[in-house]
Amino acid sequence: MLARSLFERGYSVGTAGNISVRLPDGYLMTPTNSCLGRLDPARISKLDRAWAHVGGDRPSKEVFLHRAFLEARPDAGAVVHLHSTHATAIACLAAPGEAAPIPPLTPYFVMRVGRALPVLPYFRPGDPAMEDTVRHAAKIAKAVLLANHGPVVAGRTLADAVHAAEELEEAARLALLLRGANPRLLTGAQVTDLLETFG
C-alpha cells in the first residue's frame, strides 16, 4: 500500500526506486526491475541476516545501498530509495560533499530528516563501490542524496521511512520554489529544539 501510494503520486516512475525492511531473521526487499505501483507480495525478495538471497525474486540491484544503510543504522527498520522529482533535482544541483543542500525551511523537514543531508558522489546504479561511502554517511544522517540519482531515506519503521521521504520531497520542492528569494529559515536554536523534542 505504501509503495503503491509513492508510485501513484509520481515519487517513482516505471521500475525506479526500491524499498527494504528489516526482519528478525533477515530482510525483505523489492525485486530487481519491479514497479512500486505493482508489487506482488509473493515475489518480494527475502534475504537472510548475511544478505544471502533465500526467497522470492532476485533483489534490487541496489542491495548494497540498503545493506550499507541498515548496517550503519541499527535503529533503522526500513530504507526507501526514490527518484522523486524535486529531491533528484537538488541531487543534480548540489555539489557532492555538500552537507545540507536543503535549508531548514519547515519543522517537519527537520523532525523527519534531521540536520544533515549529505550529497554523495555519483555512482552507477547498483555499483557495489558505493557501499562504503553510503555506510559512512548513514552513520551521521538518516537521509542522503545520491548525486544525479535521488534520495535514500531510513526510518524506524517502513511508515516512518516513507513519511520522511515524502517530507524530503516536499522540502526539496519548497527549496526550488524559493531559489533566488530570501526565505526565513528556522534558526539554529529552533532546529535544536525540534531535534531535542522530537528526536
Structure at a glance:
Helix content is 37%, strand content 17%. By secondary structure, the chain is of the alpha+beta class.
Task: Describe the secondary structure blueprint for this structure.
Elements: H1 2-8, E1 18-23, E2 26-29, E3 45-48, E4 53-55, H2 63-72, E5 78-81, H3 85-93, H4 107-113, E6 119-120, H5 130-138, E7 143-146, E8 150-155, H6 158-177, H7 188-198
Parallel strand pairs: 6-7
Antiparallel strand pairs: 1-2, 1-5, 2-3, 3-4, 5-8, 7-8
Features:
single chain, 199 residues, L-fuculose-1-phosphate Aldolase, 8-stranded mixed β-sheet, 17% strand
Give a structural overview.
- This protein has 199 residues and is of the alpha+beta class.
- The chain has one domain (2-198): L-fuculose-1-phosphate Aldolase, CATH 3.40.225.
- It contains seven helices and eight strands, in the order αββββαβααβαββαα.
- An eight-stranded mixed β-sheet has the order 4-3-2-1-5-8-7-6.
- The radius of gyration is 16 Å and the shape is globular.
